[in-house]
């Protein structure tokens, strides 16, 4: 019987409510990032570069655009007769079936899918992180330590440690304590939400967790602490590189702005580790005679007649004459008419900002929203509109 050494399960079913109107119509992993990409491209590209050719994509919330985008997986070299990429929505069985109740339950409901490939290892990853990682090195570390579970980790600023699963380790990186989003963290070694399990151990844990009526069926809250309490061999793999959870407007905006400075972000221009995408064929971008562009990503199909600085224009964006876009992210096929000024904003897909509009932050803003104005997909902002509040999700 054919089998796979490692199967990846990519969690892509969350609503992404903290991204506000950016995920009102689509799943979070399908949100545009870095101009020509979608967030899920990073995890799928990591699998492709790591020669993990069997990926189950667990979907639930508004999956149509995401499912259509992934298609057969050929854009990431994941179209296989045995393996490849598989979309795994919730389903009804003969005796049971329900919506996914948590990250662990989502994997539990797909035990049959994993069993079909009879893997030694199962990699659990997320569809809403921006990073480059060769999972081969993670697997090698896991084997070297004879681990049963390996969690990829990185050190975070102490003030941010309350947002993550935090662990303590001994001198051999064996995990001695794990706390999910602790109020008073004892360490700043944070989980990246990348877990490598021996399949036999994971399967047993999922079944046990499913039988616990008090469980929230979550890896960080339930499964990892349970395995640690059972004395299983859990190790922390130290990741060295850029990683960002883009689950909020602020982190999404920050990661996008950092992508304009490759030394602070993932290098989108590295030919040795390309981020792959299901890129549609469009016309070349056009820059008008009076246009001016500084430190920006301008994708194919864009027409720029005004000024763009420190910004990202996704495919098919139009910027009219005498308009200026500064410190902003403009998502695919948005149109910005003439004589409009936009600063520190995220403009949704296929949105039209009519002429003589003003969108900018004013005053000082707390870290809760940082003065970022967000205009939802398919919106029309009427001529002469002024949006100066910041932090809006129009």
From TrEMBL:
Residues 291-359 form the Glucose-1-phosphate adenylyltransferase/Bifunctional protein GlmU-like C-terminal hexapeptide domain. It catalyses: alpha-D-glucose 1-phosphate + ATP + H(+) = ADP-alpha-D-glucose + diphosphate. The keyword ATP-binding applies. InterPro entries: ADP-Glc_PPase, ADP_Glu_pyroP_CS, GlgC_bac, GlmU/GlgC-like_hexapep, NTP_transferase_dom, Nucleotide-diphossugar_trans, Trimer_LpxA-like_sf. Pathway: Glycan biosynthesis; glycogen biosynthesis. It comes from the Bacteria. One of its GO terms (biological process) is glycogen biosynthetic process. Residues 8-260 form the Nucleotidyl transferase domain. Keywords: ATP-binding, Carbohydrate metabolism, Glycogen biosynthesis, Glycogen metabolism, Nucleotide-binding, Nucleotidyltransferase, Transferase. The record marks 60, 99 as: Could play a key role in the communication between the regulatory and the substrate sites. Its EC number is 2.7.7.27. Alpha-D-glucose 1-phosphate binds at residues 100, 165, 180-181, 191. One of its GO terms (molecular function) is ATP binding. PROSITE patterns: ADP_GLC_PYROPHOSPH_1, ADP_GLC_PYROPHOSPH_2. Homotetramer. Involved in the biosynthesis of ADP-glucose, a building block required for the elongation reactions to produce glycogen. Catalyzes the reaction between ATP and alpha-D-glucose 1-phosphate (G1P) to produce pyrophosphate and ADP-Glc. PANTHER family: GLUCOSE-1-PHOSPHATE ADENYLYLTRANSFERASE, GLUCOSE-1-PHOSPHATE ADENYLYLTRANSFERASE-RELATED. Belongs to the bacterial/plant glucose-1-phosphate adenylyltransferase family. This is Glucose-1-phosphate adenylyltransferase.
């Amino acid at each position: 019987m054919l089998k796979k050494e490692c199967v990846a399960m990519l969690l892509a079913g969350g609503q992404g409510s903290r991204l506000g109107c950016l995920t009102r119509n689509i799943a979070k992993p399908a949100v545009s990032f870095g101009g020509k990409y979608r967030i899920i491209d990073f995890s799928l590209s990591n699998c492709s570069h790591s020669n993990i050719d069997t990926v189950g994509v667990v979907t639930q919330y508004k999956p149509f655009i995401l499912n259509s985008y992934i298609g057969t997986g050929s854009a990431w070299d994941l179209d296989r007769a045995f393996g490849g990429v598989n979309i795994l929505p919730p389903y009804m069985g003969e005796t049971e079936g329900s919506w996914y109740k948590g990250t662990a339950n989502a994997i539990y409901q797909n035990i049959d899918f994993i069993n079909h490939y009879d893997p030694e290892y199962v990699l659990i990853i997320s569809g809403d992180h921006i990073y480059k990682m060769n999972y081969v090195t993670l697997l090698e570390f896991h084997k070297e330590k004879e681990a049963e579970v390996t969690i990829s980790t990185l050190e975070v600023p102490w003030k941010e440690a309350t947002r993550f699963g935090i662990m303590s380790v001994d001198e051999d990186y064996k995990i001695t304590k794990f706390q999910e989003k602790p109020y008073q963290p004892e360490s700043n070694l944070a989980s990246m939400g990348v877990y490598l399990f021996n399949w036999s151990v994971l399967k047993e844990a999922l079944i046990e967790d499913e039988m616990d009526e008090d469980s929230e069926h979550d890896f960080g809250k339930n499964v990892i602490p349970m395995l640690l309490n059972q004395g299983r061999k859990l190790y922390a793999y130290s990741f060295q590189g850029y990683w960002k959870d883009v689950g909020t407007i602020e982190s999404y905006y920050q990661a996008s702005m950092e992508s304009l400075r490759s030394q602070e972000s993932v290098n989108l221009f590295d030919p040795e580790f390309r981020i792959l995408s299901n890129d549609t064929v469009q016309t070349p971008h056009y820059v008008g005679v009076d246009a001016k562009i500084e430190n920006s990503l301008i994708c194919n199909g864009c027409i720029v007649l005004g000024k763009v600085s420190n910004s990202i224009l996704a495919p098919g964006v139009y910027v009219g004459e005498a308009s200026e876009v500064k410190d902003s992210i403009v998502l695919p096929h948005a149109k910005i008419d003439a004589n409009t000024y936009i600063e520190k904003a995220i403009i949704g897909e296929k949105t039209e900002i009519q002429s003589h509009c003003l969108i900018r932050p004013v005053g000082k803003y707390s870290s809760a929203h940082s003065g970022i104005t967000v205009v939802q997909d398919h919106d029309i902002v009427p001529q002469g509109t002024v949006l100066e509040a910041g932090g809006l999700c129009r």
